[in-house]
UniProtKB/TrEMBL annotation:
Coiled coil: none annotated. Keywords: Hydrolase, Magnesium, Manganese, Metal-binding, Protein phosphatase. Residues 66-370 form the PPM-type phosphatase domain. Residues 419-431 have a biased composition (Basic and acidic residues). Residues 384-399 have a biased composition (Polar residues). It catalyses: O-phospho-L-threonyl-[protein] + H2O = L-threonyl-[protein] + phosphate; O-phospho-L-seryl-[protein] + H2O = L-seryl-[protein] + phosphate. PANTHER family: PROTEIN PHOSPHATASE. It comes from Camellia sinensis var. sinensis. Pfam families: PP2C. Its cofactor is Mg(2+); Mn(2+). PROSITE patterns: PPM_2 (PS51746). Belongs to the PP2C family. The keyword Ribonucleoprotein does not apply. This is protein-serine/threonine phosphatase.
Length: 471
């Protein structure tokens, strides 16, 4: 059967003015290319592959100059959430933020792979565009597309050009990311995948792209100087009419189980599997021909002085807390550096209160404060962060464990559906290699809910079912 994944629309761009060399590039790339300099962008990307050498990039519990991030493992086993904040992403005023929620037997590996590779693909696209526009004879990249709020009032076409460029950057980068996952030699994404909610803040411009049900919201002040919540992204779930229509048009099925009528899922046309609780995702190639796509929803927003902070979080937070509750928790945190941790702790309490018989989902939170200010280092004392942890987070040299904390590298068993106490007689060892690291862990046969609610993917496909193979 044919695939229903439509090719992403390509935005047209008008040529930019060929001016002289100015400080930083128009895209903020900050990589002026001279004829005598033979270092290519591919060399730059190769250098960035060694993430320990990237400054101003954090991906574990901690803080940066303008943000704090925190993740906590739920009760399903390995923490499948990943997150990143990368300040000075392209220029001194550009910040990349992302939250990625993995699902399926290899979901934690998919989420980390996307976390690490997707920002590089965006950088690569922007540099490629910059090179084509500048031309080989240009001595230096210019800066005419770098915007602030004043520029937009004078020239509306500039906003359109920049928005179109960033739309194409996100669309092509997401497409390339999914293609890389499909062809990865050591990572099986057939029924594993990840959501993504990503933003780039550049000056007063906010560019956003997302797939799945991880969400971004904005905390802003209204005319009465009260904090209000503004949802920035849409939860792309199968019950959205346009998403359901696409899936059904591609022969996929959308329905909810009787045990959880509020959760619509995507199923194969010929079997009740895998029960994916989102309409768009990286990976999940078993469903890519049946309506699940990796094309992101893109939007562009101009920030104002009333906008105070942005929160990105996985659905472990949004399943139990409203947008308004999240804004209230973050804005009332005793310190900015503790906001993400307090928000995750609040979500954990709500899970116990609202769903006492369910297994709490993993939670990951990024709080980006738009004025660029953060608390002093002493604020970490009440969070239990040691100075060594702070240093490792800021330098990027820390080793990430499977529960999102700092430890020696190891991979534990993935219990996305079943708990550690639930025995599976069909255990087998699988090896996976991601980013050069090989680890062995036990996979298992998924057979259904078994009393567990709000998981993102219920059952594996028959080709992985030992029971069906033996019958």
């Amino acid at each position: 059967m044919g695939s229903c994944v439509s090719t992403s629309s390509r935005s047209s761009h008008t040529n930019r003015n060929n001016g002289g060399c100015v400080s930083r590039s128009r895209l903020g790339l900050g990589m002026c290319r001279r004829k005598r300099n033979r270092k290519t962008f591919s060399d730059h990307v190769t250098t960035l592959q060694h993430f320990s050498s990237i400054p101003n990039r954090i991906f574990m519990n901690g803080k940066s100059r303008s943000s704090c991030i925190f993740t906590q493992q739920g009760r399903k086993g390995i923490n499948q959430d990943a997150m990143v904040v990368w300040e000075d992403f392209m220029s001194e005023d550009a910040t990349f933020c992302g939250v990625f929620d993995g699902h399926g037997p290899h979901g934690h590996l998919v989420a980390r792979k996307v976390r690490d590779a997707l920002p590089l693909k965006i950088l690569s696209f922007l540099h490629s565009y910059e090179s084509k526009q500048s031309g080989s004879s240009t001595t230096c990249c210019t800066g005419n597309l770098k915007l602030d709020g004043g520029d937009l009032e004078k020239d509306g076409t500039t906003e359109y050009k920049v928005g179109s460029l960033w739309r194409e950057a996100f669309l092509k980068s997401y497409k390339a990311m999914d293609k890389e996952l499909r062809s990865h030699p050591n990572l099986d994404c057939f029924c594993s995948g990840s959501t993504a909610v990503t933003i780039v803040k550049q000056g007063a411009n906010l560019f956003m792209a997302s797939i799945g049900d991880s969400r971004a919201i904005l905390g802003s002040k209204d005319g009465n100087d009260s904090m209000v919540a503004i949802q920035l992204t849409v939860d792309l779930k199968p019950d959205l009419p346009r998403e359901a229509e696409r899936i059904k048009r591609c022969k996929g099925r959308v329905f909810a189980l009787q045990d959880e009528p509020e959760v619509s899922r995507v199923w194969l046309p010929f079997d009740d599997a895998p029960g994916l609780a989102m309409a768009r995702a990286f990976g999940d190639f078993c469903l890519k021909e049946y309506g699940v796509i990796s094309i992101p929803e893109f939007s562009h927003r101009i920030l104002t002085e009333r906008d105070k902070f942005i929160v990105l979080a996985s659905d472990g937070v949004w399943d139990v807390l409203s947008n308004e509750e999240v804004v209230e928790i973050v804005s009332s945190a005793p310190s900015r550096s503790s906001a993400a941790r307090i928000l995750v702790n609040s979500a954990a309490r709500e899970w116990k209160s609202k769903y006492p018989t369910s297994k709490m989902d993993d939670c990951a939170v990024v709080c980006l404060f738009l004025d660029g200010k953060m608390d002093s280092e002493s604020d970490y004392d009440d969070q239990g962060f040691s100075s060594a942890t702070l240093q490792s987070n800021h330098s990027g040299n820390a080793v990430e464990s499977d529960d999102g904390q700092n430890s020696e590298p190891s991979l534990q068993r993935n219990f996305t559906v079943r708990s550690a106490e639930e025995h599976d007689p069909y255990k087998r060892t699988v090896e996976a290699e991601v980013n050069g690291e090989t680890a062995a862990y036990e996979d298992q046969n998924w057979s259904g809910l078994e009393g567990v609610t709000r998981v993102n993917s219920l059952v594996q496909l028959p080709r992985f079912s030992e029971e069906k193979l033996n019958t």
